[in-house]
């Protein structure tokens, strides 16, 4: 493709992203006004990591929604853990109401902000993709303390499972810009977040999956997401 037209296409695509985001943000404002109240107070609690809270942070960042990013230091965790109902994070507090489970948090925020899919069928597709990504990520031995054994287990996951999952996820994307519909959803955010972790574990894991790599890059090039990535704390996971 001629470079001029290639650049024009990128400009038009980004313009569409911003217009779509404007529409969603406008709908959020209308919903606030119709309720006669302001945006809820959000408090997201997790460790000083991207991990299971980062997809929610992407949703907040994409819409410029203010929230309290409560990051727990490891030294404080033994005292905080017993105070939590299920002894785990992340949790999201919405005006004091607690939501557990990272996927439930992301789905709630996505529905509130127009990132869940435009129809019930699209929402089911988005959820299925995110759940499949989680199935793959949950195969990794995150809690194994023996580092030699842990590395061996990670290698085994990549050898035995990566093609099955990554081929399937890439097939769901196909030649589309986004996983579902004609605009970004939280499933795209979730993939972008998890793919960072995957490439940290195995640098070349996406070399044989160029469409998934391109999707990661498209998400990271969204202006509000790019700003968040630049300013967020730098952590390994």
Q: How far is the N terminus from the C terminus?
A: 37 Å
Low-confidence stretches: 1-6
CATH class annotation of the largest domain: Mainly Alpha
Chain-averaged pLDDT = 90
- Describe the largest sheet: 4 strands, mixed
Written as H for each helix and E for each strand, in order along the chain, the element string is: HEHEHEEHHHHHH
Roughly what fraction of the amino acids lie in strands?
Answer: 5-15%
Q: Structural class, judged by helices and strands?
A: alpha+beta
Describe the structure.
The chain has 237 residues and is α+β, with helices and mostly antiparallel strands. The chain folds into two domains: 109 residues, 3-Layer(aba) Sandwich (Glutaredoxin), CATH 3.40.30.10; 110 residues, Glutathione S-transferase Yfyf (Class Pi), Chain A, domain 2 (Up-down Bundle), CATH 1.20.1050.10. Helices cover 59% and strands 8% of the residues. It has a four-stranded mixed beta sheet with strand order 2-1-3-4, with helices on one face. Helix 2 runs parallel beside helix 4 and helix 5 packs antiparallel against helix 6. The longest helix has 33 residues. The termini are far apart. The N terminus is likely disordered.
């Amino acid at each position: 493709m001629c470079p001029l037209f290639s650049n024009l296409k990128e400009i038009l695509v980004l313009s569409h992203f911003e217009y779509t985001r404007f529409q969603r943000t406008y709908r959020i404002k209308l919903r606030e006004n119709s309720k006669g109240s302001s945006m809820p107070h959000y408090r997201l609690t997790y460790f000083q990591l991207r991990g299971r809270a980062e997809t929610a942070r992407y949703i907040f960042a994409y819409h410029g929604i203010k929230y309290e990013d409560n990051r727990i230091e490891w030294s404080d965790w033994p005292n905080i853990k017993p105070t939590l109902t299920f002894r785990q994070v992340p949790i999201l507090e919405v005006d004091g109401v607690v939501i557990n489970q990272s996927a439930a948090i992301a789905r709630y925020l996505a529905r509130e902000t127009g990132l869940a899919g435009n129809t019930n069928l699209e929402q089911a597709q988005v959820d299925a993709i995110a759940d499949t990504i989680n199935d793959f990520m949950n195969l990794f031995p995150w809690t194994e303390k023996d580092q030699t054994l842990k590395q061996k287990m990670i290698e085994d996951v990549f050898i035995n499972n990566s093609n099955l999952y990554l081929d399937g996820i890439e097939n769901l994307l196909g030649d589309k810009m986004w996983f579902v519909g004609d605009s970004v959803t939280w499933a795209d955010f979730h993939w972008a977040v998890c793919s960072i972790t995957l490439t940290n574990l195995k640098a070349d894991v996406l070399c044989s999956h160029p469409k998934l790599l391109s999707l990661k890059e498209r998400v990271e090039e969204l202006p509000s997401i790019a700003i968040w990535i630049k300013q967020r704390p730098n952590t390994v996971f």
